[in-house]
Automatic annotation (TrEMBL):
This is Ribosomal protein L5 domain-containing protein. GO terms for cellular component: ribonucleoprotein complex; ribosome. Gene3D superfamilies: 3.30.1440.10. GO terms for molecular function: structural constituent of ribosome. Pfam families: Ribosomal_L5, Ribosomal_L5_C. Keywords: Ribonucleoprotein, Ribosomal protein. InterPro entries: Ribosomal_uL5, Ribosomal_uL5_C, Ribosomal_uL5_dom_sf, Ribosomal_uL5_N.
Length: 343
């Protein structure tokens, strides 16, 4: 009875045959821990005797697990993260992205790009210094102009109506925020796209363009389709005439590193990127001709694989976390990207 009281409640409900085995195991462990001589417990498992061929046939852990009547509670040991996040007040929350059981878990990083390491050690602090604007204490704040237009009240329907957007544009531009320690601009993604209308008549052009973009990014590019008809070029809506690929994180920094240190210095009589580029939201773009694309080491090493007349040019879109084109240009200039022209 003393041995039965020492067992857990689920073990008391087992049959006598299984109970005897578990009692013997628990008793042997209890006796071993109470002995003064613990030399047997200090032996390594590598020196334990190996199982014979007959014992290996009888050793079936899957059958032992199937015959086990007492199982582990599923709520604690078989947790599945929720598929949808239902708000911060919901009792079931998703684990953080750093947890291996999270749905958005990404292992790594396994390497640190040189350009990103330079950004974290030098450029980030320099950007805060370059973008700092000193305001003496007591300076009155300037009133920012209204971004939305009101109604003149000439009609009774103007009452309680929503304000209108700016004149000439239905989209509100982003407000440029000051660079502080918690919103330093950085590169988020880089998209490489190419347009080859000759692929409509000769699909080999599309194959070459896809191979080039694949070698530049290391990811399988997506095929893009035309969205309008051009009768002069024989283009119809839905024709496959281009490819694009997007890289994120370390891959984006590595691609920009190759552009700055391996491609741009080898372009003859290249003035740089036009300073007027940008979408007023911190995203810049520039283009590369076929002669400039072949300067990438991935293409140059296997240049014999690509037909010379089928090598396409490409457009590079750099998306940053900046809130204005001015901050994005300042970020790329610190990386070594040259700009020319008046802003």
């Amino acid at each position: 009875m003393a041995s039965l009281r020492g067992l857990s409640r689920p073990a008391r409900s087992l049959p006598l045959s299984q109970l005897s085995r578990q009692t013997y195991t628990a008793g042997s462990i209890r006796c071993a821990s109470s002995q003064a001589d613990l030399s047997d417990l200090e032996d390594s498992t590598l020196t334990a005797p190996q199982l014979g061929p007959d014992e290996k046939k009888e050793f079936r852990p899957w059958k032992r697990a199937a015959d086990r009547k007492v199982r582990l509670p599923s709520g604690r040991y078989q947790f599945h993260p929720p598929k949808y996040n239902r708000g911060p007040l919901h009792p079931v929350q998703s684990p953080p992205a750093s947890d291996p059981i999270a749905r958005d878990f990404v292992p790594g990083p396994f390497n640190m790009p040189r350009l990103k390491q330079t950004y974290q050690s030098t450029i980030a602090s320099d950007l805060m210094t370059l973008a700092y604007t000193h305001v003496p204490p007591g300076t009155p704040q300037k009133e920012s102009p209204a971004r939305l237009r009101g109604w003149d009240g000439s009609s009774p329907y103007h009452k309680n109506r929503a304000l209108r957007g700016p004149r000439g544009s239905a989209v509100l531009p982003l407000i440029e925020r000051d660079v502080t320690f918690n919103n330093i601009p950085e590169i988020t993604e880089v998209t490489i796209s190419t347009y080859v209308p000759a692929a409509i008549k000769d699909p080999d052009h599309l194959l070459v363009a896809r191979s080039v973009v694949l070698s530049l990014t290391g990811t399988t590019p997506d095929i893009t389709k035309t969205k309008s008809n051009v009768a002069q070029w024989g283009i119809k809506i839905g024709d496959r005439a281009g490819v694009k690929s997007t890289v994120y994180g370390n891959a984006a920094y590595e691609f920009l590193d190759r552009c700055v240190h391996l491609v741009f210095p080898r372009i003859k009589d290249w003035r740089g990127i036009r300073a007027t580029t940008g979408d007023r939201a911190g995203n810049l773009a520039f283009g590369l001709s076929p002669d400039e694309v072949k300067l990438f080491p991935e293409v140059e090493a296997n240049y014999w694989m690509y037909p010379a007349k089928m090598l396409p040019g490409c457009k590079v879109f750099i998306k940053t976390s900046a809130t204005s084109d001015r901050q994005a240009r300042l970020l790329l200039q610190s990386f070594g990207v040259p700009f020319y022209g008046d802003v």
